[in-house]
Amino acid sequence: MTDLRAKVERVVREVIADLAASGALRPGPAPDTAAPRTPLVAANWKMHKSAAETRAFVAKLRLAEGVETVLCPPAVLLPVLAAALPPGSPVRLGAQNVHFEAQGAFTGEHSCAMLLDAGATYVVVGHSERRALFGETDHDVARKAAAALRAGLRPIVCVGERLAERESGATFRVLRAQLTAALTGLGAPAPDPAALVVAYEPVWAIGTGRNATAAQAQEALAFLRDRLAELFGHAWTRGMRLLYGGSATAKNAPELAAQPDVDGFLVGGASLDPEAFSAILAAAAARRPEVTR
Ligand code: PEP
Questions:
Q1: What is the pTM of this model?
Q2: How far apart are alpha carbons 232 and 184 in whole angstroms?
């Protein structure tokens, strides 16, 4: 069954890649590419924190000028977080998952409208834990990303190779396939580049304490930006944010953030600690716009 599923997914990816190459995904209007990309740092709290811990986190958080900060708590904590932030706070809220249907018999799920109601602006889509532990497929990821954008939620689409894929030299094939599949449902014209974020999250780096080197992260993100340019055009692609995720810490963030295609971070473990997360925000703020590609 798993083999069959893998084969079906591979065929779907190939068809999608052909569609993309044929120009079926036409670019929308070009954005103002003279404007530098605003770094974005998103915290993925996964299944951590109580309401009291959420309030304590907010009290200790230090924002960084010029960095868009996104906090993605468990969905039930979105209203708690919204209430804990000072009025007019620039911090954006995000969800960790969404269902692509608007409503229905989907026990345990949340729709885009529900997440928007709860205060979310962003939603993480296709996280490797959702793919590996909850059987989320490329097709699901595509439907979620499309539903989010239609509803006015900004998807943070995660892609990344497993260790065996990296070791067998399949990294770029996997990244291309996941990215192309995830974006198929978007159609034309292309969405607002500020509303779509792609995170490179090598599975072997997530929660392992072993981050990708700055060179590995840059290489993968440059590859993704070039593939996005094939789909949506260079001008559009220069306006969108690409994140690195996988054991990002206060220590490794400065070197990673100095890479031309690293526009910020998706942070798991280190985002639970307000000091560590604030230091990552500061590292993203120190990024010089002139290094961006
Ligand atoms: C993540 O889960 O998206 C992640 C990047 O986790 P960590 O930072 O803990 O590796």
A1: 0.89
A2: 11
48 among known catalytic residues:
no
What domain count does the chain have? 1
Tokens in use for 96?
Answer: 């960790």
Tell me if 30 is assigned to some domain.
no
Catalytic residue among 110, 127, 136, 139: 127
What does the alpha-carbon distance between residue 83 and residue 257 come to, in Å, rounded to a whole number?
A: 31
In a domain? residue 286: yes
Task: Among 44, 46, 122, say which to mutate for ligand 1: greatest number of ligand atoms within 8 Å of CB.
Answer: 44
Cα-based angle 178, 241, 257 (whole degrees, multiple of 5)? 105
- What's the pLDDT at 116? 98
Whichever domain contains 281, its CATH number is 3.20.20.70
Residues of the chain with pLDDT under 70: 1-35, 289-291
C-alpha of residue 218 to centroid of ligand 1, in Å: 17
In 126-263, the DSSP E strands lie at: 154-159, 197-200, 241-245
Sort strands 40-44 and 120-125 into parallel, antiparallel or unpaired.
unpaired
Contact 202, 248 (CB under 8 A): no
The stretches of 135-264 forming alpha helices (DSSP H) are 138-151, 163-167, 171-183, 214-232, 234-238, 253-257
Gap from CA of 101 to ligand 1 centroid (Å): 27
Domain that holds residue 73: 36-291
- Please indicate whether residue 247, judged by its CB atom, sits closer than 6 Å to ligand 1: yes
Structure confidence at residue 138 (pLDDT):
96
Q: Is residue 59 situated within a structural domain?
A: yes
